[in-house]
Design brief:
InterPro entries: PHA_gran_rgn. It comes from Posidoniimonas polymericola. Pfam families: PHA_gran_rgn. This is Putative polyhydroxyalkanoic acid system protein. By secondary structure, the chain is an alpha+beta fold. The protein has one domain: 2-Layer Sandwich (Alpha-D-Glucose-1,6-Bisphosphate, Chain A, domain 4), CATH 3.30.530. It is built from three helices and five strands; from the N terminus they run E-H-E-E-E-E-H-H. The longest helix has 20 residues.
């Protein structure tokens, strides 16, 4: 059974700029979620309004999630397959760090 992980990353960029940065930097978040196995993982993603839905698969395991772009935060929800559930805390910490880097005011 999938284990949901939720991470919220606050920002002060406004919704449009936060979305642009997520669109441009989603590859960095993908790397954090796959732990460097990116070339072995297939990804699909699509936007519904200000919510990016994504799905990936590797070795028979499926990972799904959503990134909701809000005015003052990006809320990430990821449904980890059982095999990755034991790493949920580590994954959420890496996602939080990667999200902060993407959303830092420059």
């Amino acid at each position: 059974m999938p284990r949901p992980v939720t991470v919220s990353v606050p920002h002060n960029l406004g919704q449009a700029e936060a979305r642009r940065r997520i669109e441009d930097g989603f590859g960095q978040l993908q790397q954090q979620m796959t732990g460097g196995l990116g070339s072995m993982v297939s990804w699909q993603r699509h936007w519904e309004g200000d919510c990016l839905h994504f799905e990936s698969g590797m070795l028979g395991q499926k990972l799904t999630g959503r990134l909701e772009i809000l005015d003052d935060a990006v809320r990430m929800e990821i449904d980890l397959p059982e095999i990755l559930a034991a790493l949920a805390d580590r994954i959420s910490g890496k996602l939080r760090d990667a999200g902060r880097k993407l959303l830092e005011k420059k």
